[in-house]
Design goal:
This protein is α+β, with helices and mostly antiparallel strands. The chain has a domain of 58 residues. The chain is built from 2 helices and 4 strands; from the N terminus they run E-E-E-E-H-H.
């Protein structure tokens, strides 16, 4: 997550707990899109867009990103807060190579 309302570039990262997958590594907060993200996303992040995605998909992915950031680092503490989806911008899409045993689609 890039926080761009500050004078210098700030990137939000976290350290994985020891013993977890990629334990003790510095990583972006993240996780899977849950069923509730599909259900709640359009209402809680209206205006969400991302290249190549429908509005519903963009809202679900953005809601998942906000939820995971809350769960992992404590930002966005109110799970029912409505966020302006247009204030967030997708900056990239990466998928791990097929030969990697645990894959990510971010």
């Amino acid at each position: 997550m890039v926080i761009d309302d500050r004078p210098d570039l700030h990137v939000l990262l976290g350290r994985r707990r020891p013993g977890a997958f990629v334990g003790d590594m510095i990583v972006y907060p993240g996780g899977a899109v849950d069923d509730d993200d599909w259900r709640l996303g359009p209402a809680l992040v209206p205006g969400a867009t991302a290249p190549g995605l429908s509005a519903a998909d963009a809202a679900a992915y953005l809601h998942a990103a906000i939820r995971e950031t809350r769960e992992e680092v404590g930002l966005f503490p109110d799970p029912n807060e409505v966020h302006d989806g247009a204030a967030f911008a997708a900056v990239g899409h990466w998928t791990t190579p097929e030969e990697v045993p645990r894959r990510y689609d971010t």
